[in-house]
Design brief:
Elements lengths: L1 H8 L17 H9 L11 H13 L7
Amino acid sequence: QMAYGTAARFKLSPYIRIVPAAAPDPSVVLADMLGHGVDALYYSGTAERAASVARALAERGFGGPR
């Protein structure tokens, strides 16, 4: 809710997705997000999973904040 309020104040349109913890590979969700033109990503989870997400983003040439 807080994210939506902040986004509205700055006239942003967030595209929020969750990578399921049970998903062995986050690339499907990340490909969808990048396909929607996201320019930043917020991650909250384990360090191991963060490394997997970072690798998948790097492989796709994502240069935005993470």
